[in-house]
Amino acid sequence: MVTIESLVLRLERVEAQLALHRLVHDYCIGADHRDLQRWTSVWTTDAVWETSPDRRFVGIEAIRAAVQDQWRIFPVMQHATANHIVEIDAPTATGRCDVVVLVQLPDRRWIAGGGSYEDHYCNVDGSWRIAYRRVVRPFDLAPLAPADGPGEVNDIPD
């Protein structure tokens, strides 16, 4: 039998799943649009961001500095995540998603790369945050020929 209590639990679970999916999108949007406020808002203050076995950033200040370094190196970044799955055990959750990333080098060549993210999430004062993110199965492809990035197309047909 369906009860009000069971419906409330189901609704809370659906809301948590939607919030976690939005969190993963906000991570990409913050990085790609150089939105430091949005980028910072996805992390817990003591978060860990492990981009490779030898690159680990601990705490919001280190994570913020790391993305700002990426912005200096790559004039344009475009992330796309897919296949995001979450397991919720409130007030924490785990997740995994695949990512494809295109980055432009200063000489206007592009690199395509990606991998998967393994995440641990924490609900802080009613908002989900990334407490730990690790890049697994990373890959990079050789640089592509120089090209204009998004918003820089000069030959738009009339």
TrEMBL record:
Highest taxon in the source lineage: Bacteria
Domain SnoaL-like: 12-134
Identification of the protein by name: SnoaL-like domain-containing protein
SUPFAM superfamilies referenced in this protein's UniProt entry, alphabetically: NTF2-like
Organism: Virgisporangium aurantiacum
UniProt-listed Pfam families: SnoaL_4
InterPro entries in alphabetical order: NTF2-like_dom_sf (IPR032710), SnoaL-like (IPR037401)
